[in-house]
Fold Nitrogenase protein alpha chain.
Amino acid sequence: MAINEKMIEEILNKYPAKVKRNRKKHIVIRDSARENQEIEANTRTIPGIVTNRGCAFAGCKGVVLGPLKDMVHIVHGPIGCAYYSWLTRRNKAKTDDPKKNFLAYCVSTDMQESDIVFGGEKKLARMIDEVVEIFKPNAITISATCPVGLIGDDIQAVAKAARAKHGLNITAYSCEGYKGVSQSAGHHIANNGLMENIVGEGDWEEPPSKYTINILGEYNIGGDSWEVERVLNEIGYEVQVVMTGNGSYEKLKNAHVAQLNLVQCHRSINYIADMLEKKYGTPWLKVNFIGIRATIESLRNMALYFGDEALIKRTEEVIEKELAEIEPQLEPYKKICSGKTAFCFVGGSRGHHYQGLYEELGITTVLAGYEFAHRDDYEGRDVLPHIKSDADSKNIPDLHVTPDERRYRLKIPVERMEELQKKIPLSNYKGMIKDMMDGSIVVDDLNHYETEEFIRILKPDIFSSGIKDKYIPQKMGIPTKQLHNYDYSGPYAGFRGAINFARDVAMGFATPTWNFIVPPWKDKPLLEGSIEQCSDDTCVEEVGA
Ligand code: CFM
């Protein structure tokens, strides 16, 4: 069923007036006749609303720093923060030589009550000594969780002293969970720290090959970056570093030599992309390796950027070969999927990226949104100058980056850059809304109440989101597809990944499981209640009881 403003109004009417006013700004019905559709984003979730968001620590240590494999990532805080973020994100990694891969470890200062009272700095310093002695990592990060900021441990000073003592790259990240309105704040903190302390530390002055690139905002969930790299290598690209999936300190420190930076997830890493351009003169290209069409377009745009005839030819040869391999496999899945509808609600980028892949299978996205993205991820980067900063966004400083005197090199002349920008998303991202179909819904920070209401109205055939909200739709008899961890499947990126995705989604529709599920509200009486006016006497009695 198509949705209209009146239906949204009815959903919102259940809220108190102030909450209704707030939530209304986070919901938009796509209407291409209106040039710029505004949406509110990256503001605080209203207390009491069941959101799917995480915290700044999750965004910093969990998302951006965590996948760097040859470093030990210390969590300074009580053990729960480290334990519950231990291997919960599927950022896969292969061990390089020399054999340093510490991703499987959970390393925490395990702060106790006495550390909270008397301070945890000494314990942290001891822990760093121990980590250096036991693991001999290439570098160390320290991430703070909430109590550390509350008691005022100076982790930056501890890191600085340890760096001098051990002669090792040891950096601290003040990413206490409360530092922002979501994990997005943590991405920004991590981006700043990596740029200030690691990128450019290496001594390379020249790229190792003609087409050296970095892939930013790709975390190798379910092996995605391996599939992307397979194709890129076949075309002839050299990937210096993936930030940060399967990434390493050793590679990251020489990231400055690349001739082009690709940006897959704009939300989590656009700060580094922008700073690399300012400091080293390297443009970034917004790519999307989710979906066959999007992958082909990204590969063609890359070839166009380098503008080399041989590379353009090779790109087309590889595309042709890959398509020949996957197209016959895709057909049976398309038959099962065709004509269906989907919800596509993910953290900060995938809500956009997966819509094209759904479309290729014949599935229409009727609702999409992000947990924590900013207005530019919805409306495009043109909106950046118009985003008002508030106390929360000011909390994390924008680094002031200037051109590196020795290493800054314009990778392409200004005129060519301008010409290319008319054709490809070079150092630009146009956001999600413009790609959505008229009448579809865009919801920022979707909560559980609204999820149920939108499901009731739109009746999607598949609900794609994450672990926190998948079980409710599943109990309603709707297939779900986790787009954060892929339900332990994947890779879903690139050509072969599209086949895996098609297979998994088709399986979700075709499984006979749904015939055996009766939602509880269908065969059990529902509890109904009402609020009655009570006399003073009865209220006192009840309170006393
Ligand atoms: Fe970027 Fe991500 Fe995403 Fe993200 Fe994440 Fe993730 Fe995500 Mo889960 S970095 S914004 S903070 S694409 S962990 S790999 S799936 S919410 S949509």
